[in-house]
Structures are given as C-alpha cells and as structure tokens.
Amino acid sequence: SRSRSRLAELKDQYQLRFGGDQIVILGETGRVKVIAAEELVTRDSNSGRVIEFKGEEVLTSALLEVTEQQQRKVYLVTGGRRADELVPIAQQIQPLANAQNARLESLVLEGRQEIPEDADALFFPGNTTDLSAREAEMVRNYWDAERGGLVIFLDPGAETPNFDELLREHGVAPNRDRVLSVISLAGLAPRRISDVPVALMPGGGPTRDLPALSARLLGRTQSLNVLFEDDLLLSENIRPRPLMVAGEGFWGETEFQAEDISFNPDLDNGSPNLVFTAASVEKGMPGDTDLSEGSSRLVVVGNPNLISPDGNTSKVAADFTMASLNWVMNRE
C-alpha cells in the first residue's frame, strides 16, 4: 500500500500472488516463503476465536527454510524403551522439529557399522538398555571426531555403564541416586516428593535464551556431578556446565529404596540446596580456547520424561529440548 511499484516488481520477480494479509520472506539464494496471516494463529473450531499466537515458531521455521542449504536431520535412537512411550515422545518432538526446519527419524544402532552421514544430532529418549562397547565407541567417534550433536535423557533405573563412562570422561558423572525431598507436617507422617521442581541456569549454551525459567521433572530423576571447575578437563578444552538445578530442599538420595530417608552428607549427593539435574558439555580442539574451529556438543538430563510419554509436556520443557537440539547442532 505504501509502494505499489515495489510490490509490482516483487510480484513479477518472484511470481507472487497475494490474497489477503501475508508475510513474504525472501532469501539471498532466491528462495521464497509466503506465510498467510492465518498461519500465525490457532482458532477455536467452534467460535473462531484466536486461542493461540504461534508467530514465533512459524517465522523461525520460514527463516530457516529460506536460509539453510538443507534440512537438518535428528535421529531418535531407540534402545529398550517401550513403544507405547516412544511413539508419543516422537509425536511431540516431530512438530517442534518441523518448526525448526529439522526432520526426526528413528535409528537402531544394533548391527550398524557407523552413524548415518546425514545425522546432525542423536537423541536418546530415556533408553533402558546400555550401549554395547562397539556402539559406545561408534557414538564417541561420531561426537568427538565428526562433531555430531548428542542429547541424552537418562533413565535412573537403567544399568548403563557404557553410557555413564562416555559422560564421566567428559566431566558429567551420573549418580546412582534419586533426587527427592521429604515434607514433614505436624500430626502427619513424613511425605516423600519425587517430582522435582527445577530452574534453568543462566549463562551460555542451550539455556542462554531461557533464563530463570522453571519446570518440573516427573517420576524418577538422578543427580549429575558436573565437574565445571576441573583443571584437567579445562586443559583439554572440555567444558562441562550445569543447566538445571533442583528446587530448595531436594537432594540426591543414595538409599532411596529405604522407607525412612533423610539427607546424609556422608552418603548422599549434592545438598538440599544445590543438586544439578541437567548439564552440557562442549569440547573444542586442543589450544582453540575461543572455539573458532568449532566444537563437539552434548546435553544430558537425569530424567527420561522431560518430553512426557503422556503427552503433557510443558512449554518450558519443550523449549529446553529444542534449544538443546539446536545448540548441539551448532545453531545459535
């Protein structure tokens, strides 16, 4: 309406046809994405009233589509978790990935000789079976040599020594415990709380744009020992960093199967005020302190249900998961 000559020029150049309010995104390579105004909102099917604005995800997806050379590929690595839990997890992640111009596919490591060449990231959604020694080496090579991204949700009830070793050698040690708290009220028996409120920690990495947000980890959660001040790791240009801290009064209980529990500083992990439940690791080339030559990245969460198998994932949890996938793919 303000420059009809420019509008006519664009119509001719890009063969655009306008029918109502639209946003047009033009890429330098000649790629074009047209977004109708209605795509930015969700309406109630009965009343027609707008019930949700989703412009951010729609515009983000369109911008990535016209600027990236190819769609990113995220592989969901199956490993013992029941199909009735995996399917709803994948169904929730797929539209999130679509909005980030990424594609989600499943991957079975058993019998493979290498990770697919088109894998930008591997996502382990609370696997209940461990990696074999050969699979662990394959994943380690993919992460370290090929700088592939890893996002790992741990199942505290699973015995995964090879998985744990891969994480420990890079400064994140999963503890054999459960993060919990106990509430005692006068006249009532003490009540154990296993659903853990967590706060996202400020700083760089995947939580950079999610400062001070909170979420809740449901079910079983284990704590992580994050060696973010270890001189040996730092000298090897390995940088672990905590991403989530449990709410006040929660600790990593090692005797979680006992009926009566309380925090024991000699046996338990963390303290009732400082327990980490998620962490990131970034590994650069030796001597490349500013990571100008790139890096390998991973994110680990000590809970398998951050993306809920019941389909009730919170927005903060979904945003954290997608921020983690984007970060490990070196997509700031």
Descriptive notes:
24% of the residues lie in helices and 28% in strands. The strands form 5 sheets. It has a 9-stranded mixed β-sheet with strand order 6-5-7-8-18-17-15-12-13. Strands 11-10-16 form a 3-stranded antiparallel β-sheet, with no helix packed on it. It is globular, with a radius of gyration of 23 Å. The chain is α+β, with helices and mostly antiparallel strands and 332 residues long. The two termini are 36 Å apart.
Topology of this structure?
Layout (H helix, E strand, L loop, with lengths): L3 H11 L7 E5 L5 E5 L4 E3 L6 E4 L1 H13 L4 E6 L5 H17 L2 E6 L13 E7 L5 H12 L4 E6 L6 H8 L3 E3 L3 E6 L7 E3 L2 E5 L13 E4 L6 E3 L4 H5 L2 E9 L4 E3 L22 E9 L10 E7 L13 H14 L4
Parallel strand pairs: 5-6, 5-7, 7-8, 8-18
Antiparallel strand pairs: 1-2, 3-4, 9-14, 10-11, 10-16, 12-13, 12-15, 15-17, 17-18
Structure summary:
With 332 residues, the protein is of the alpha+beta class. The protein has helices spanning 4-14, 55-67, 83-99, 133-144, 161-168, 231-235, 315-328, and strands spanning 22-26, 32-36, 41-43, 50-53, 72-77, 102-107, 121-127, 149-154, 172-174, 178-183, 191-193, 196-200, 214-217, 224-226, 238-246, 251-253, 276-284, 295-301.
